[in-house]
Hints:
The protein is of the alpha+beta class and 171 residues long. The protein has 4 helices and 9 strands.
Amino acid sequence: MLRSRIAGSFLLLASSLAALGVSASVVNAKIVAESELGRSCAQEAAAKLGVDRSSLMLLPVEKTRGIFHVYGQTDEASPTLFECKFDARRKFLGLSVKGGHDHQDHVAAGAPKAAINKCLQMVGVPSVVEKVSPLKPGFYEIIIKEKASPRRVACTVPEDGSDIEDWVEMN
């Protein structure tokens, strides 16, 4: 009898939380060690934003009024800001994204996203990719134009975006 009441109470709680829009992953979220809050946040952000973990930059964990906050951003030319929240017990509360994340498919533009992001990051201001040309195997030339000015640059980069091989101002 007691077991059925507990089960019924649990089902009522679960359906109430679902009606409020609280996902099962938040309800069942595990408690994270304080030293792992940044890593946990980065995993959540990478999955939600569809980016590699290596393309995220995080600030140190902050604690305000019993809530742990981890702030971060993508390393793109037009970065996407995000925040992870954990309760006082370090249980994941959620991830909020601030600003639009550019979901354009850079691979469709002809070069891997890592290569394009490296060049866009080097420009340092909102820009668009005008043209992508393959060079020798594993390298691309990416022509970028700043959104707010006539400035154009040609960036030569390997497909993994590890380093900029050449940079030419085209004005």
